[in-house]
């Protein structure tokens, strides 16, 4: 799949296209933020927010611009907003009206990562999950073991639904990498 094709499919809520774009551009956005923040956790959080916002607003993307540049710009703006919030000490709250306006990222069929995860022996799978960062362990646990919906996970973590979806996509990819390395 090419980037332009993936963007067009993502505009039609194609889950595989979202996965492709996340995989293709994660390292670019994360690396950019790691240089800016010099903090792995902040870089990861901002990267998750970047993809969440980009996927939510994918229909506004103009193909006159390079997609990577568009993502980096979103990422840079999120970082600037974060710095402003920290400086002004405003509490980080989620506007419930905005939460209801998101464009759903449809998760219709099991991805290759989902299939791989379900095929694993439970004990081995739990050991592999423990190798993930705690916030990834948490979303995997809430989604697959407690079987909560995205909305329920969003409420429990007090994060926007799109952040939960991106975090879960990333957690599944990392877990699949851990499983396949064996």
UniProtKB/TrEMBL annotation:
Record keyword Transcription present: yes
Alphabetical list of Pfam families matching this protein: Sigma70_r2, Sigma70_r4_2
UniProt entry tagged with the keyword Acetylation: no
Stored InterPro entries: RNA_pol_sigma-70-like, RNA_pol_sigma-70_dom, RNA_pol_sigma70_r2, RNA_pol_sigma70_r4_t2, RNA_pol_sigma_r2, RNA_pol_sigma_r3/r4-like, WH-like_DNA-bd_sf
Alphabetically ordered keywords of this record: Sigma factor, Transcription, Transcription regulation
Stretches assigned to the RNA polymerase sigma factor 70 region 4 type domain: 126-175
CDD domains linked: Sigma70_r4
Family statement drawn from the similarity comment of this UniProt entry: Belongs to the sigma-70 factor family. ECF subfamily.
PANTHER family in the cross-refs: RNA POLYMERASE ECF-TYPE SIGMA FACTO, RNA POLYMERASE SIGMA FACTOR
Name by which UniProt lists this protein: Sigma-70 family RNA polymerase sigma factor
Originating organism: Gaetbulibacter jejuensis
High-level lineage: Bacteria, Pseudomonadati, Bacteroidota, Flavobacteriia, Flavobacteriales
